[in-house]
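OP here, attaching both records as promised.
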Amino acid sequence: MGDGLVKQVAERLAGEVRAEDTAARLGGDEFVVLMTELAEDPEMALMETQIVVQKIQSAIARPFHIDGNELHVSISIGITLFPENSDVADDVLKQADIAMYKAKEQGRDTFQFYLPSMQLAASERLQMENDLRKAIHNGELSLHYQPQFSIDDRLMGAECLLRWLHPEEGMISQARFIPVAEDSGLILSIGEWVMRSACKQLRMWELEGRGGEINRLAINVSPKQFKQRDFVVMVSRIIEKGDSGSAIVETIISMTHHLGLEVIAEGVETRGQLDFLKHSGCHHFQGYYFNRPLPVDEFEKELNESINPV
């Protein structure tokens, strides 16, 4: 958030709080509002707080004008009451922070009141982040490869899917650890590892004489990776290092159509879906109708069977 925008946000924030309240900037794009002289009755205090919060939301929802440009800003608000939840300043700020992240999870432009149960969830999330950091260094992450087939049923590639085998909890779902990786920034190092590992595996298959059989791997890329200034250079270097010239690494993301990339229909689970997609002009497919994501040894077995059908 630029300085000009920060200044305007601060001005609007100060204009919506009550005279007895205090508004301050914590740093970056985070602000704190200290509301005092609320009603002693908890329900009335909540209502008074909610009125101010809604005024702040309305004020921030109006467009900002910076250097001739119109900008729209979203806001996530976390709220905690004291001394009901705590009378220690650091604890109060932590509780508001936890509630704010809960609001972000709900889709932004919303607010959440702190609940004690959120503390447990935050602690579990922090533990997962620490475990994920260890997983990167301890080699607990691996890639599985879900086969992709052409319109003539030829195995022509695969999507690389990340798997995490935790030493104590076993296989952990992507739905649990990917959001943590995104929020913590670990997705950047994980994403680079995925690219390097995929290119290395593709190169190994090529050296084994299978380069003509499978010459593409689809890799899911986080929006945060795209925002890296050196993203294109990094990808180019990885491909150049792991590729002899004939192998191609394709990045498959949700905005495929906008980027003009080749479309692969994912999630094909029935023959009816496959027939419909073929009839609609789709030429590449992937899904449990063909196979589940496979460890490398099982994928190679599938590859051999595809080359030499019984």
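Record two, same layout:
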Amino acid sequence: MSHPGSRRGDRLEQADHARGSKVNYGSDDNQNSPLHMAAVKGNTEICSLLLTLGAKRYVTNYIDRTAAQVAEDNGYFHCATIINNYVPKEEVRYYTIPEYNGCEPKLPPELEGLFYKFIMMTNIHPVKVVFELPSVFLVNENALKIVKVLHLMSKRQFYKKEECKSTTEMLSFKFHYLATILFELAEPNDDTSKNQTDPKDVFLQKISTIEHFLQKFLHDCIVKFSYKDTALFRQMVSYMVQGMDSLPPLDIILLLVGNKRAQSGESTNEPVTCAACDEINASKKCPKCKAVKYCNRACLQIHSLMHKKKCKQIRREIKDLKSSEETSVLAKCLSIIGIK
């Protein structure tokens, strides 16, 4: 959040006003900005370029629709995800500038690029987040510094007034969520201290070997979100307390904050996603049931415990189906030759 009167705050606000001064005006009779025009066609490349040039996602057209909403109206959910998840680089660079002369910046400048790429992820499945997490984030005190910056960014999004609340609340939770995962990896424990094991491997091992670990971890993540007076938090809680119809925390986060809607909304055919990390275009099948796919062997191993019961059920159903089909074929053949 910018601090009135501070040099860093002034720079951030000046940059914010300067960027986008020419790309946010309505370019047609319906007051659609260039970002609206790109969104209505689902052109993610042009949308990304316009956002980089300073296009504001909260600008509305004559019917009070933002570019992201226009993209969703036309079924381009991935495009809407790109727009809603965009963060100007200035908002990250802000934390690399010392607030006062002689003090250290909140974010080490050498981590700016990696940090920006990290927060711009749209697939925020925890397994994918851990896979993509730069190892340098866990070196020395980097993790705690980054966690602090993520919490500050979460707070800044919560207090933003000019943007659509649903978008700022989503980003606020996203930064809190990323901070929670990083803090879990950075927290010393017996597994990492004794064996000098990579914290990322320890976390992934817990997911693959401890039943319900991931769902409990994400449940706690939702509950610990600081800004409980938000529509997003209330919606998450409502999904968790619907009795038999309640959704697992992972599904809730991927649906409301991640890119699950983007993956399923643009095609009548459900895209093939990795059962472990939710990445699209997974190609490696489960060797037993052949019904579930993964990115690679690592994802298969991580998901093995969670998939074990379902795998048996799928194989049983396939076996019963084949048996039923064979019986039906046999009965048809016997009927043809006059045997009932």
